[in-house]
User: Fold this.
Amino acid sequence: MEGVRQRHQFGTQGVAGMIDAYLADLREQLRIPSEQILAEVEDHLREGAERHGEEAAVARFGPVALVADRFHRDVAVRDARRAVRAVVLAGAVLFVLFIAVDFMQPRAPWPDRMMPLGLEWKLHVALLAGQVALVAGVIALIHHVLGHRLETLRAGLVAVGAATVAVGFHLVFQIDRLSWVQHTRSFAVVVVASAVARVVVLVVAAVLVLRGTRRVERIEVTSVNGLLLRRGWIWCVAVALLAGVAVFAHDEATRARSLVDGGLEATTAVAAFAFLRSRLGLTPSR
Amino acid sequence: MLQGHLDSLLLAVVEGEPAHGYAIIDELRRRSGGTFDLPEGTVYPALHRLERSGLLRSDTTTVNGRQRRVYRLSRRGVSALGQQRSEWKGFASAISSVLKVSPA
Assistant:
């Protein structure tokens, strides 16, 4: 590659310098680490030139913009997939943390419905996990701005949306922990409303993540082992309903909390299913 | 349509023996009787993606003073290619059955 750089630096012109000019153009247009790519492209073009001449070799290789775009698209898809997976993993971490808090604290309701001191930090960690997902989404968005890929924008929006929902959920989750609520006559209304709101929010978040994952995979048209979670939202709703029914076996005091946990569990289960399915390269169901 | 099956085609081409990008594209063109005549530069992103996903491995050698990247099928690639062949056979058979001209 050093040779290419030097030759281009000295300004080779005309057909004889077409390969150098092509490589220089490609170097300018690639917004990803390009040394290895350029070395490989140079090898290809030089071999092509030995067989068909420089002009034909460059023509057969394709326009610089097209080649650069294909490289960018692949990187954009990879980054978007990572962003979506980060959201999925962050959701799983959130779930584990919420469950951990549940196990480590006395069963609700406490006398003052306040979380015991010393456990507060776990919710902060959970909130942090949500923020990690948010950052992943922002990264995907930045990549879109740099790469001008509509698909990445959508995936980024999904990531940000899901993460925002996760953080929002955390805030809603706090409602029935406020001591003033239990002293009001509308305590039951607040708890039920917040529980319903959480489940709705979680299902919407799950659908967003799944649709985003599916969209990202669909972009990668050459991936035969794609994720392609078809009708993922039906699974999500079904599992959430089952979880909802199951938790009504619990006593009334923990029902609202259990309902929330059930929804969260359903979300995480579907997300984990999607993640494992993509990692194991299973054939999508049709 | 070709883009949707490019990964399988590339895996199949390097199944027999390792090859560098130029040879892979040449072989793809030869095996398809010239039908698959893609802009050559668009094949490299696909090769890189297959390597990232662990289906291909590559080694760099020096030929005529130039760096050359030679691709070979990984164990995962062998398995994926087998699965893709099987899927394609089922798909092609189904399409053929539907497109078959019915006797008048």
